[in-house]
Amino acid sequence: MYRSHNCGELRMAHIGQKVTLSGWVQKARDLGGLTFLDLRDRYGITQAVFNMDENAELCLEARKLGREFVVQVDGIVRERSSKNASRPTGDIEIEVSALKVLNQAKTPPFTIEDDTDGGDDLRMKYRYLDLRRTPLQNNILFRSKLALETRKYLNESQFVEIETPFLIKSTPEGARDFVVPSRLNPGEFYALPQSPQTFKQILMVAGLDRYFQIVKCFRDEDLRADRQPEFTQIDCEMAFVHIEDILNTFEGLAKHLFQTMIGKDLGDFPRMTYDEALSKYGSDKPDLRFDMSFVELNDVAKGKGFGVFDSAELVVGICAKGIAESYSNKDLKDLTEWVQRPQIGAKGLVYVKYQKDGIKSTVGKFYSDDELNDWGKLFGAEEGDILFILSGDAEKTRKQLSELRLELGRKLGLMKAGDFKPLWVINFPLLEWDEEAGRFHAMHHPFTSPKIEDIPRMLNGDHETMKSLRADAYDLVINGSEIGGGSIRIHDRELQSKNFDLLGFSKEEAEAQFGFLLGAFEFGAPPHGGIAFGFDRLCAVMNGQSSIRDFIAFPKNNMGRDMMIDAPSDIHDVQMKELNLKSTYTKGN
Ligand code: ASP
Questions:
Q1: Percentages helix, strand, coil for the chain, rounded to the nearest 5?
Q2: What is the pLDDT of residues 271-283, one digit of tens each?
Q3: Under a CB-based contact definition with an 8 Å cutoff, are residues 145 and 535 in contact?
Q4: Which partner for 571 in 143, 382, 446, 575 could form a disulfide, CB atoms 3.0-4.6 Å apart?
Q5: Are strands 439-442 and 314-320 parallel, antiparallel or unpaired?
């Protein structure tokens, strides 16, 4: 028997019991005649003690153990004389009577403790060591439980878990595909799914009217800290539903997950249209942990002789509460430089400070105190507040102000850990005009339905009309992160063809790429819609973390490399030949 108990289990109630524990040596300390060993496994850390006076041979053996050796100890549980209140097992220790080394270990390349000194790539190369650390173990356990709770909720709501293939034909979700050459079909390729979108729609045609899958998706994009080339979605689809049914079902799922996993009652989710989100927060995924919504000042700020505002398409601002007295000139200068950084790109920052001793503003020359007081009223500003105002091209200015709002939220501590603010953003545009390419893109994906009332305009309208079409598409946003997104789908062949047409597919192209779906729509496709949640991101957001990497057992780095197995890598010439691939690329070129 390797163990009678695990390393996180023993308490005062076990005192006097003979036990066997196995685990890794976290740390060893020699104190005079005693040697202490911290023994670690997935469940916790237990202290083992060796006494020189009582058993010198055993004690000397213990002193030879290095960090991360795998050992087994037999001994008696006894009360500790100096207790460690920060550890659940901190009241007891094991008085060791036998020690067995199960395996030795080289000195690890970084410390395996809650806070480690290892850089990202090193930790990924030795992922098995990184995964021994408690914070990562907790993340992986959290993820496993989140998947279980998801299955539980969806199962109780009659959803069926169905696997869809990984070797498919490209599904357009807006990213590049990863492709896999087919040996049996020379010169042809599979694509790895960017999502199971078309399959889940086909399942609705098949009558399996509530589908879900916790599924890997693959997108060949440039990577950021919160993106991975392969990531996991909770992918769902329902038939015979309106938008309301979907929002309610999945609001229920999100509430269930937050309640059972972290004990948070999210309350009912507010809803906001895409247009409102952009005009109030400059973003389609606003962080609602704090308000600071936009107020547009065109009517009051233009035409008073301040050229910068006069020539701007939009003058818009936010109000930061209660910082006018404490925010120094240096702070204002830093903030101005911050918005002028190329990543933000504002030309300048106008402020209006409402202080005890009067109003101070960068534009005081152009506007009277009365006028500036009237601006304040539009924001509901009081003494002690500061308005920050940007101007210029409307779209760009909104984006810049959105960044500034978030920066202030961070600086002023308004995004509190443990605070969760969900939001449904609805009524996204159906199509996005790409000026450079001179064509429309689907804002969500090509299978998304326009709002019913917009269908006649879609079928008969001119080019400009198409830009104003609204879709039955929605995103679930929590604390400024897009957690999920989906839409009601087109289930009518004609309308789907029209959409492909608008997106620049010729009849032949549409038929070649999506003939199977269009065909299925001719055999009784029910009205349907769905959603997909970013599973990795949900894990991170629920834990108040920004990077999804630490919730993935084996993530890839920013270059899409798996540092542990060293992939991607070359393949043998034989394999290349078999796959009918010719090498046109030489390393280093
Ligand atoms: N397939 C979509 C996505 O991956 C989600 C959906 O429309 O259900 O974003």
A1: 30, 25, 45
A2: 999 999 999 999 9
A3: no
A4: 575
A5: unpaired
Q: Taking Cα atoms as reference points, which of 239, 271, 245 lies closest to residue 529?
A: 239
**Lookup: tokens for 434:** 């790409």
530 pLDDT above the threshold of 80? yes
**CA-to-CA distance for 6 and 17, rounded, in angstroms?**
14
**Pocket residues for ligand 1 (CB within 6 Å)?**
173, 195, 197, 485-487, 530-532
Q: Nearest 5°: CA angle at 565, between 189 and 195? A: 40
Longest dimension (CA), the chain: 95
Confidence grade of residue 170 (pLDDT, cut at 50, 70, 90) = confident
CA distance 190 to 408: 47
Atom of ligand 1 nearest to the CA of 531: 8
* Band (304; pLDDT cuts 50, 70, 90): very high
Asked whether 274 and 426 are in contact (CB, 8 A), the reply is yes
The structure tokens listed for 254 are: 């999100």
Helices of type H across 341-462: 369-379, 394-411, 455-460
User: What DSSP element (H or E) covers 272?
Assistant: strand 271-273
CA of 476 to the centre of ligand 1 (A): 12
In ligand 1, which atom is closest to the CA atom of 489? Answer: 7
Q: Whose CA is nearest to atom 7 of ligand 1?
A: 486
Q: How far is the CA of 200 from the centre of ligand 1 (A)?
A: 10
Nearest C-alpha to atom 1 of ligand 1 is from which residue?
197
Predicted structure pTM score: 0.94
- Interatomic CA distance for residues 376 and 404, integer angstroms: 19
Q: How far is CA 321 from CA 139, 197, 293, 387, 517, in A?
A: 36, 45, 12, 9, 54
Per-residue pLDDT averaged across 354-364, rounded? 95
Number of neighbouring beta carbons within 10 Å of residue 305: 10
Q: Which of 235, 426, 536, 538 to mutate to test the pocket of ligand 1 (most atoms within 8 A of CB)?
A: 235
- What is the edge-to-edge ordering of all strands in the sheet holding 386-392? 295-296, 314-320, 386-392, 350-355, 358-361
Cα dihedral 244/250/256/262 (nearest 10): -120
**Which protein residue has the closest C-alpha to ligand 1 atom 6?**
486
Contact 24, 69 (CB under 8 A): yes
DSSP assignment string, 498-540? HHHHHTT--HHHHHHHHHHHHHHTTTTPPPEEEEEEEHHHHHH
Rounded to whole angstroms, how far apart are CA atoms 408 and 181?
49
C-beta of residue 102 within 8 angstroms of C-beta of residue 22: yes
Q: How far is the CA of 177 from the centre of ligand 1 (A)?
A: 15
Atom 4 of ligand 1, residue of closest alpha carbon: 195
pLDDT for 589 beyond 60: no
Phi-psi category of residue 409: left, alpha or beta, with phi > 0 → left and psi -120 to 50 → alpha: alpha
| The total number of residues written for the chain in this structure | 589
577 Cβ contact partners less than 8 Å away, ≥ 6 residues apart: none
The 8-class DSSP code of residue 14 comes to G
Q: How far apart are CA 529 and CA 488, in angstroms?
A: 4
The token pair that represents 400 in the structure block: 């810049």
Q: How far is the CA of 487 from the centre of ligand 1 (A)?
A: 8
pLDDT of 115-136, one tens digit each?
988 888 999 999 999 999 999 9
